[in-house]
Write a structure and sequence with these properties.
alpha+beta; two-stranded antiparallel ribbon; 16% strand
């Protein structure tokens, strides 16, 4: 019986595979426990939840990804912006405060055709933050210089450790004061947006 050999028309190699075989061969199962944040939008209202999960799934090599069948797009640009904002705030604010802050924004500016939308808000806010990087660097350098002047009576490693502790305390105090200010401002933000929402509802009656 005659045998039939297959080879690559480009390089002549006989080490070839079908796309379907390469995809399956590059996939392996995973079984992990994870913790994370979930985000949902319904009628313009933002919902955020935190929890853990037991995850099973499939892990793919780069080759498997390249030959994988196409999948439908799940997130819009504005969904991704919301996820970035939540990740950004999650390190300093509670979930309730994040909802208080973002709910009025999503209700009014999420997926709108107006000039001011979630995308334009994101660009404007983070452009301001980029402009503040130099000021933040200067402030950190100033605090570090102040910490180097502390515990002059100590010597050697003791002085180095105490000065580092002093530097961390100054940075922490700065964060603590700003966090308190942010929380107070969010309370005011909640009151202001609640009044605005009530006025809108009254005008529709």
């Amino acid at each position: 019986m005659a045998t039939q050999n297959f080879s690559c028309p480009q390089c002549g190699s006989e080490n070839i595979q079908r796309f379907s075989v390469a995809f399956r061969g590059g996939a392996s199962t995973i079984d992990t426990k994870t913790a994370g944040t979930g985000v949902g939008l319904s009628g313009g209202h933002l919902g955020i939840g935190v929890g853990g999960a037991h995850t099973t799934g499939v892990q793919m090599t780069q080759l498997a990804k390249e030959v994988a069948p196409p999948v439908k797009k799940k997130y819009s640009k504005e969904h991704m912006i919301l996820l970035i904002m939540i990740y950004y705030y999650k390190g300093i604010l509670s979930i309730n405060d994040i909802q208080t802050l973002l709910n009025p924004i999503t209700e009014k500016y999420f997926q709108t055709a107006s000039e001011i939308n979630l995308g334009s808000i994101y660009e404007e806010i983070f452009r301001l933050e980029e402009d503040k990087v130099a000021d933040l660097q200067e402030d950190i350098i100033k605090k570090f210089s102040m910490s180097e002047k502390t515990f002059q009576e100590a010597s050697g490693e003791d002085q180095e450790v105490l000065q580092l502790f002093s530097f961390i305390c100054m940075l922490s105090y700065d964060v603590y004061v700003k966090k308190l200010l942010i929380e107070k401002m969010i309370d005011s933000f909640r009151d202001a947006t609640t009044v605005e929402e009530k006025n809108v509802k009254d005008s529709k009656k």
